[in-house]
Specification:
This protein is α/β, with parallel strands linked by helices and about 400 residues long. It contains 13 helices and 15 strands. The chain has helices at about 10-20, 35-45, 115-125, 140-150, 165-180, 195-210, 245-260, 270-275, 285-305, 320-330, 345-350, 355-360, 390-405; strands at about 5, 30, 70-75, 80-85, 90, 95-100, 130-135, 155-160, 185, 215-220, 235-240, 265-270, 310, 335-340, 380-385. Strands 1, 2, 3, 4, 5 and 6 form a six-stranded mixed β-sheet that branches. Strands 12-13-11-14-15 form a five-stranded parallel β-sheet, sandwiched between helices. The two termini are about 45 Å apart.
Length: about 400
């Protein structure tokens, strides 16, 4: 049941709300009062003496009418009702009270991996767990594996996926889980970083304990990319079916960037690369992967030196797209995956080159979308469907995030 007042918390508050609702912040059941927040800040305990490392607070603007006794529906950025906050105290700009879940959160990436402590504890059963909280990649798993063997414990990876680097942290955790083996568990935790490193570490330990950890290891801090976004290298990687419009959008984006100036732009179209860089390759999976790796290498080298590369291959396989992302991030550049998600029916209707008709007739083997799979990205940073919009509108859908993100000025 929703409440008469409503509000959309900011990103930090939404992350804390999710952890309150999931039980990861146990024994907390709601947002702290001003008095509790000051007590935690000063002494590491709530006013009732309960130990807790960091304030967990929520604010409403001064002109919002909610008062003690009122109920406020908390919504995500898309308007979905997540929880109801029953106001018990309002002081110093902070609104306190218990929260009651209305629906599972759907905002943010990798929602299917955001398991609750209860779900992980059920999976663990009586087995001990070594929890590893992550804010970046785990380059060396030796200590983790040795500690787990010593404890006879299951490794539990807890990627702390908050903010713009969240997807990269989750991908690093998924890669580490593959190397650790099928017994390793993983749960995405949207824990926002606290400014004080010692408090942040203690909060990570409390969350790990809530997930059933016998022991806790904090993963290494990630390497911070140098400089502001407009000085960093960037690869905009458009993927989609033949005829989806990705090449048209990519060319439009290139032209728009050249008109604005300020960035060195490299454009790598799939068909052009096939004729030059990848001449002689077939359309077998092995050669397709090699083609995408070559595109990724060139794009990463352009981005290594601060350039902006635009790529527009079909790139049907998720694992190969991930390899390209890793190439780019390994040189200290940023990567933006754009899924041009125009439906197959529309792509086939356009069929400018007659390729779909030939594939349907069996004249083209291993044709993506017909006789060979296209693995739709579940990690796309941006999704564009060109079915019912103009080229200029589609280009704008890609250009605007670049401007908002600071990569283009």
């Amino acid at each position: 049941m929703t409440a008469p007042f409503e509000w959309t918390p900011d990103a930090h508050e939404l992350a804390d709300l999710e952890l309150l609702l999931s039980g990861a912040f146990q024994p907390l059941t709601g947002f702290m009062s001003s008095a509790d927040a000051h007590s935690v800040d000063g002494h590491g305990v709530l006013t009732d003496g309960t130990s807790w490392p960091a304030p967990v607070t929520f604010a409403l603007p001064d002109d919002h009418p909610a008062a003690p006794g009122d109920r406020v529906t908390l919504r995500d950025p898309e308007g979905a009702a997540l929880a109801v906050l029953t106001v018990t105290d309002r002081h110093d700009g902070l609104v306190a009270g218990p929260v009651e879940a209305l629906d599972a959160p759907e905002h943010g990436p990798f929602a299917r991996l955001r398991l609750t402590p209860a779900e992980i504890r059920k999976e663990l059963g009586e087995r001990p767990a070594l929890a590893v909280t992550m804010r970046g990649p785990l380059d060396d798993l030796g200590e983790i594996e040795a500690t787990a063997r010593e404890l006879g414990a299951v490794v539990l990876l807890l990627p702390l996926a908050f903010g713009e680097n969240g997807p990269a942290v989750v991908r690093a955790a998924l890669k580490a889980r593959e190397r650790l083996g099928e017994d390793a568990l993983l749960a995405v935790v949207p824990l926002a970083r606290r400014d004080d490193p010692s408090i942040d570490l203690e909060l990570r330990e409390r969350v790990a304990e809530a997930y059933g950890a016998t022991e806790h290891l904090a993963g290494p801090e990630p390497v911070t990319l140098p400089g502001p976004p407009h000085r960093r290298g960037l690869v905009v990687f458009l993927t989609g079916l033949s005829g989806s419009g990705k090449s048209t959008v990519a060319r439009g984006l290139r032209d728009a960037l050249l008109e604005r100036g300020g960035r060195t732009v490299t454009y790598l179209d799939g068909d052009v690369v096939r004729r030059l860089l990848s001449a002689g390759l077939t359309f077998s999976k092995q050669d397709r992967d090699l083609n995408i790796r070559r595109i990724g290498f060139v794009a990463a080298e352009a981005a290594r030196h601060g350039g902006l590369a635009i790529c527009a291959p079909i790139a049907p396989y998720a694992a190969t797209r991930e390899e390209v992302r890793e190439m780019v991030e390994a040189v200290g550049a940023d990567f933006l995956l754009v899924h041009v998600a125009t439906p197959l029916e529309e792509c086939e209707r356009r069929d400018r080159k007659g390729l779909y008709a030939k594939a349907r007739a069996g004249l083209i083997p291993e044709f993506t979308g017909i006789s060979d799979p296209y693995e739709e990205p579940d990690d796309a940073d941006l999704v564009v469907d060109t079915t019912s919009i103009s080229v200029d509108q589609a280009v704008r859908q890609v250009l605007d995030p670049l401007i908002r993100g600071g990569w283009v000025r």
